[in-house]
Amino acid sequence: MLMSMVKEHQNKQALKKEIQEIKRKEACAAANQLTQALVDHLNVGVAQAYLNQKKLDAEAKQLHTSAVNFSKQTQQWLNLVESFNGALKELGDVENWAKTIENEIKTISNALEVAYKSTQENQPIS
Length: 126
Fold this sequence. Notes:
Strand content: under 5%
Keywords: Coiled coil
Pfam families: GCN5L1
InterPro entries: BLOC1S1
Helix content: over 70%
Protein name: Biogenesis of lysosome-related organelles complex 1 subunit 1
Order of helices and strands: H
Low-confidence stretches: none
Organism: Henosepilachna vigintioctopunctata
């Protein structure tokens, strides 16, 4: 009887060990599934962040290119305005020169007229 009780106890212990081993394997499998699900969930977020970063990089390059083009256009406009300003200054110089010449010609004309009148007055009437 004692022997049968020992065997029965050992059988129960073995059965409990088998059940415990099965539950341990199930727990490991469940933990692996959970870990895989978490990794998959995180990978989706990482993949989305990577795609967003690629889009941002492309837009930053495009913005840089646009800024460089804008800078070139601005420089061209500045050069054009400078040349226009120079042309306006030249026109102002030409206008000033013309006014000076006109005044000098009037002065000479007046002097010649006065000289002519004085020679006409000083000539005896014949």
